[in-house]
Amino acid sequence: xxxxxxxxxxxxxxxxxxxxxxxxxxxxxxxxxxxxxxxxxxxxxxxxxxxxxxxxxxxxxxxxxxxxxxxxxxxxxxxxxxxx
Length: 84
Description:
44% of the residues lie in helices and 0% in strands. By secondary structure, the chain is mainly α. The N and C termini lie far apart (45 Å).
């Protein structure tokens, strides 16, 4: 739900769900020139990351996903300070 910034030094603006849905619909129409979303066999699919990321809360993310990175870093020794 992030839009493109108007300038390189500006932070991205958060978009409303309505604005985001409008943008997705517009992108789908543009891609129809190149992709067949209605093909009987193996149609193109436009997948929205929010469909699978949206249900996660921040706490769930930290618990489930960040834990994996901490464990991986620990196994690879990335969490250790160099000895001088």
